[in-house]
Amino acid sequence: MWFDEAVIYQIYPLGLCGAPRDNDGVQAHRILRVLDWIEHIKETGADTVLFNPLFQSDRHGYDTRDYYTVDCRLGTNEDFKRVCGALHDAGLRVMLDGVFNHVGRGFWAFQDVQEKKWDSPYKDWFHISFDGNTGYNDGFWYEAWEGHHELVKLNLNHPDVIRHQFEAIRAWVEQFDIDGLRLDVAYCLSPDYLRRLRGFANSVKPDFVLMGETLHGDYNRWMGPELCHSVTNYECYKGLWSSFNSMNLFEIGHSLARQFGPENWTLYKGQHLLSFLDNHDVERIASRLDNPSHLLPAYGLLFGMPGVPAVYYGSEWGIEGRKADGDDALRPAIEKPERNELTEQIAKMAEAHRHSHALCYGAYRNVVLTNRQIIFERAAEGERVLVAVNADSAPYTAHFDAGCGMAEELITGKPHDFGGGSELPPYSAAFWKMER
């Protein structure tokens, strides 16, 4: 599966393209801004672009009005078709955000219910009681996502709802040639629905990928041969930043061993969860880390650990964004990309990851673990890579049995001699490809 070797570049299009916060009904061709980002995305080492919602919505994209039409604030279907064509021509795959658990109050079928009440042929598309009401005073109560009544929960047991959504996916493949979906709040989707979605998607495009948004719990509930191919690894997301802030790399080391280690009881051995340091819902990693010098070693962990690494637009050059300042701070408008030393290092790590069989598929084993250093092994058929991170302000000399005297440092391409121990510079990350 191509996704197992991917590096994802995530874009929140309503933010990046500077769309108005609320849908003003005015059509503007803002999505074409992405065309100016394509070369930069390639230079980061990414090979897949994940777009957060871009279909017609009330406000932020997760309150869908129409699954078949690109949001007028971003442009037209033809505009997005042009963007996808340019991305594919550049060798980049495209994934979209599939928001199937709920819709916005502006969704056409829900508006029909508002108008006709119990006479609407679409009343059973939702979970409605005409004996109640909500704060919107529609004259009926309806189930919403986590109590947010601007997000109307769909009845995913209704065959017409499923048919409507699945035909939208078919249209996205036919018009835009998309390669996969991120499933919003996949933890709310039933296994039966996921099985039907997986079967349909793969009938439309055999290598079509489903990556589900999950938070906590056993990810095997939503991921497997008949379910999602992958899910978001929020468990390790927390450890990726808090291990540095508390100077306790045991936290992330134990989390990774619990998920992917050599023991028989580990949870996700051989699975390819989505790994990330930030996204459109959480603080930017540059704002989350107490010490800015930890940015580089944090990205070293991201690209060295098991999983499919994702980079959120702008974070590759270290922009900040705090959740306390609202969603707009996490999803800013940026006209053109920038590059700095962090960007260059991320690009080198991304290339190393994509072209290393061990980093894409290898098993996980902790080799050295202290409060301020972690060295772990990724081993696959014919290849062994050691990932080394030093979170300290001082150099660190690691003494351990590397199993050989020489290695290639994948980020720099230089030979590395393990003869007298291995010295890690302050705030550093290294990938060593070991000689057999």
Description:
With 436 residues, the protein is of the alpha/beta class. It is 28% helix and 21% strand. The protein contains 13 helices and 21 strands. The protein has helices at 13-16, 38-43, 77-89, 108-116, 159-176, 191-204, 234-245, 250-260, 285-288, 295-304, 327-330, 341-354, 357-361, and strands spanning 8-11, 48-51, 93-98, 102-104, 128-129, 141-142, 144-145, 148-153, 180-183, 209-212, 230-231, 274-276, 308-312, 363-369, 373-380, 383-390, 396-398, 406-409, 415-417, 422-424, 428-434. The strands form five sheets. The protein has an eight-stranded parallel sheet. Strands 14-15-16-21-18-19 form a six-stranded antiparallel sheet. Strands 4-8-7 form a three-stranded antiparallel sheet, with no helix packed on it. α5 packs parallel to α6 (191-204) and α7 packs antiparallel against α8. The radius of gyration is 23 Å and the shape is elongated. The mean pLDDT is 96.
